[in-house]
diguanylate cyclase
Amino acid sequence: MSLAAAAPATESRSASRWPAHRQRAFVFWAALVALLLSFCTVSIMTLVELRNDTWQRAANSARSLALAQSLEISRRFQIYDSVLRSIAQVAGDDAFTQIDWISQQAVLFDGALVDSALADIIVADATGRVRWSRRGGVGAETNISDTPYFQAQRAAIRNGLLISRPLVLHGRAPDMVVAISRGLETRDGSFDGLVTALVRLDLFEHIMTGATLGPNDVVNLVSEDGIFLARSPSLPGIVGRDVSSVPDASLFLSAPPEGFTSRSQFDHIQRIFSAVHLRDMPLLLSVGLSEDDIFASWNRRAQTIGLVLCLLAGMTLFLAFQIRREFRRRIETENTLRSSEEQYRLLADHSTDLIIRLDAEMNRRYVSPAALRFLGYEPDEMLDQNARTLIHSDDWPIVLRITDNARQAVGGTEDCYRLRRRDGSYIWVEGRYSYVPSDGGFIAVLRDITKRRMVEAKLAAAHAELTALVNTDPLTGLSNRRHFDEMLLDLAAKGDGAPVSLLMMDIDRFKLFNDTYGHPEGDRCLRAVAGAMRTAMESENAVPARIGGEEMALILPGRTLAQAQIVAERIRATVEALAIPHAGNETNGAIVTLSIGCAERPCQADVLEPLIGEADQMLYEAKRTGRNRVASRLILRKAQPLPAAPTDHPQREAVERFRVLKLANGRDELDTLAKHVADLLKMPVGFISLYDRNEVELVGRHNITLATSSKDASFCRYAVQAQEPMVVADLSIDPRFAQNPFVTCDRGARFYAAAPMIDPRSGEAIGAVSVCHHQPYYLFGAEERAILSTFARMAMQGMD
C-alpha cells in the first residue's frame, strides 16, 4: 500500500474514534435538554389552561352578577310602571272629572307607592300644563311641554313606557333624576297628556352598591343609546355622559353573552365585562371585574411555577455537571489509587511516626520500620500479636475508647497513652486511629511525645506555683480578693441549690491600732488573725480570704447559717483569746477583737449580690451594736425587740429648739434636703424624721405622703437610740422589721438606711435622715453611709 493510501485510512480511524468518544456526552446532554423542554412545555400549557379557565369563571361571575342586578332594577321599574298605569286609569275615569281638584289630588296620590327614590309623580295635560303633582304646589305657570320626555311622548304616544336622560330636579344639582313616563289618550286615541314618575338616580347606585365587588370592579347602567345613568363606584360628572362614540362602545351596547375585555376610558383599568339588557326596557347593565384582581392568584402561581422551573433547571444542570465531573474524577481516582499504594508504603517505611495496621481483633498486620527506633523491636517481631501486649494496663481503656469513636465516626479518635519498650521502660505516644470499614480494622499513627510530656509536667508545676502566687495574699497567706471573687462565681455557676454561707470579718478599730503601734505591728496582727481563722474554721473546702485592709472573709460551701454562726463564734473567740493589746479598743477589753457578719443563700446564678450584701450588712450591724460579736438574721431573731425609748429632758429641749430654728419658716428647706439625698443615693424615697415625745414626725419628705408614725413602728429608732448609721438591705427578711406594717403593706418598704441627727449642743440624737426603696438593695456601702451622715449633719446646721 502506498503512503498516499495509508494517510486517508489513518484519518478515517481517528474520525471514527472521536465520534464514539463524544457520542455518550451528546446523548446525555440531548436527553437532559429534552427533559427540561418537556417540563417547560407542560407547565406553560397548564398555565395557559388555568388562565383561560380563570377568565371564563370571571366572565360567568360577572354575567351572573349583571343578571341579578338587572332583575332588581327591572323589578323596581315594573313597580313604578304599575303605579303610572294605575294613575293613568284613574285620571281617564269620567267619575274622576266630577270631583273637586283637592279630592282628585287625594284620589290620585294618597294610595300611591311610598318610596324615597320617587322624587315626584306628575300628571300633565296635552298642552304640558301640570294638573296634579304628588309634591303639590301646582300652579298655572307649571308647564313641562318643553321637556324632552313630554315631547317624546307626544310624538309617539303608543310607544308605551319611556325613560328619559338624566335630569336635574328643580335646579338642585345633587338631586339627579330620570323621568319614567306613560302617555294618556282620549277616547279617539289622540294625545291627552302624560303621567310621569321622577326617579332619583341614587336608587340605581344604591342597588348596584349592594353587589359584592372588589375595589377595582364596576357596575354600569347605560341607556341603549349610550347615555350613562349610574355607575358604582360613582365618578364625578359621569351621569348623563354620552359614551356611544368611545372605543368598544359597540361591544357594550351589543351585550355579547360570552363577555369581553375592555379598558376603561375613565380610570384606565382593564376589566372583563358582561352586559345584559333589562327586560322590556331600553336599558343595559354591565359588570366589569378587574383583570389585575382576577389574575392576581394566577400571576402568583405563574411566578411560583416559573421560579420552580428555573430552580429545577438550575439544579438539573448543576447535578448533570456534578455527575459528569464525578465520572471523570472516579476514573482519575482509580488510576491514581494504583500508584498511591506503592507511594503510601514508601512513605510509611520512611516516616518518623510509627504506623501500625490492625485487624478487627486488634492484631497487628503491618508495622512500619520506625518500631525499632520507638520500641527497640523489629517490625516482624510485632506482627500477628495483639496491640494490648505493649500498652500500659492503665491506658488500655483509653485505646478502647478512641477505637470505638473511630468506628462510630463521632470524633475523639486521638489521645495519649504509654507503650512498653523492649528494655521494660515506657514511652508516651500520641495515637491517632482511623477506621477501615472494609475489614473492620484500624490504621494507627503513633508519635513519640515523651519529651513533650516531660516539658508539660514542668509547665504544669510552674503554672500551679504561679497560680498559688496569683491567688494568695502575700502578707497573710490567705486567698486574695481575686481568688475570693472567682470562688464565689464558681459556686454561683454550679446552680445546684446547695447552701453556701459567707462570713465577713473586720478587725475592730484597726486604724487606731496602726496609728498607735505602727504598720509592722499591724502586719503581725493581720497574720495572727489569719492564723486564728485557719485554726478555727475546721473545714477543708472552706476558703479564707483577705479582701482588703483589715477586712477578711470566709466562704463555707455546703454550710447552713446556723453552722456558719458556730464557725464565726469560734473564730471570734480564738482571736479574742490571742489577747493582742489594743489600747484604742477600750470598750472591748483593750485587746484586738473581731466583728463578724454571717449570711447564707442557695447556690444559684443571682447569689452573689444578696449573699455579699447581707454578710456586709450583718458585719456593719455587729460593729454598730458594740463590736466583738457575731451578727446574723438568726441572732437578730433571737434578740429582744428594741423598745421605743422615752425622750429625756435634754432631748426634748433639742427637739423644741429644732422646731424653733428649722421649722419656723416652713419645711421647704428640709423637703429639698430630703429630695437631694434621695437623688444623690438613687433612691425613690427620702425623708427627715424628728423623734418627738409621743411620735415620730416626718418634717422633710420626698415621694412619701406619711406625716407621722408611732415610735414602735418607726425604723429610725434603732439609728436614733444607737446614735449610729443603720442599713437594712432587705427589711422583709430582717426579724426586727419583717412584721412591720410599713413592710407588709402593698408596695411596702424593702430597703432602709438612716443616719442619726445629733444635736451639737447636747449630743442627743433627735431624729434621722433616711432613704428607702421598694426593692432590696445590697450595694449600700461605706461611701453611701458617709453621704447619709453628711446630710444628717447638714440637717442640723444652725443648731449650735
